[in-house]
Amino acid sequence: MLLLLAFALGVLAGLRSMTPLAVVAWASRLGRLDLDPTPLAFLGSGVAAWFFAAAALGELVADKLPFTPNRTALGPFAARLLTGALSGGAVAAGAGGSLAEGAVAGAVGAVAGTFGGYRARTGLVRALGTPDWVVAVMEDVIAVGGAILLVAAAGRGVA
Known about the structure:
By secondary structure, the protein is mainly α.
């Protein structure tokens, strides 16, 4: 079950790269996810929690701007792989599982979320005939709400 949570968190990183990492950092900072005995303990520092929260908020705004690169471009795609792996590894390790296996599951989830999210967003914009930003806001709600729910489930030992 932990690997499924890590994979799902990676999928959300494919939608919004910084959101799952920000949620993981704050969960660690608030003592809801124990990363102290792991190499990812730095995520629980105040600096990391605030940095990733600011990055996530910035991404939520930047995603709506017309000059923002496509998530499937090399740079944004690589960022999604990295943050998917970090957040997946952290949620797995913080709940007593394998950091390495969680990182792989998170990275695989990020691939699925990046390409699946791109297709879903462009398809919904066409099908609904709405501006892109409307679908983007729905994607924001899914990424933020989903990350909070998944990290909370891992922190409660649901996995």
